[in-house]
Amino acid sequence: MLKQAFLAVLLLLACCVALMQGLPTSSRERCLCKRPGMLSVRMDRVATVEYHQSSGNCGREELLVTLKNSRRRCLNLNGEQGRTIKEAIMKKRNVK
C-alpha cells in the first residue's frame, strides 16, 4: 500500500514537472528597450544597428541603434525609419 501511494505521488510530481517546463520562469520581461523608442535618428550619427526578434526573454521586436558617441537608443518599429531599417536587415538576413 505504501509503495503504491509513493508511486502515485511520484507520478503526479513527474506530470507537474512536465507541464511546468513550458511556463515562463519570470513574469518580468528582459527587454532592452523599456519604451517604444525614438521615431528617427540622424543616420550620420549611427555606428551600429541591432534588430532583435521577439523571444522568450522579450515578447516584442526591438531595434537598437548605437550612436558614434557610444550611446544606445531604441528606434520605434512603427515609425517610417524603423520599418525601413528592419526591412533592410531582414533582406540582408534572407540573402545569406
Automatic annotation (TrEMBL):
Q: Which GO terms describe its cellular component?
A: extracellular space
Kindly indicate whether the keyword Zinc-finger belongs to this entry: no
| PROSITE patterns per record | PROKAR_LIPOPROTEIN (PS51257)
| Pfam families (UniProt xref) | IL8
| Highest taxon of the lineage | Eukaryota
Q: What is this protein called?
A: C-X-C motif chemokine 11-like protein
Biological processes, Gene Ontology terms: immune response
Q: Name one GO molecular function term.
A: chemokine activity
Checking SUPFAM superfamilies in the record gives: Interleukin 8-like chemokines (SSF54117)
Q: Which residues form the Chemokine interleukin-8-like domain?
A: 29-80
Please report the organism this UniProt entry assigns to the protein: Crotalus horridus (Timber rattlesnake)
Q: Where is the signal peptide?
A: 1-22
InterPro entries from the xrefs?
Chemokine_IL8-like_dom, Interleukin_8-like_sf
Q: Which UniProt keywords apply?
A: Cytokine, Signal
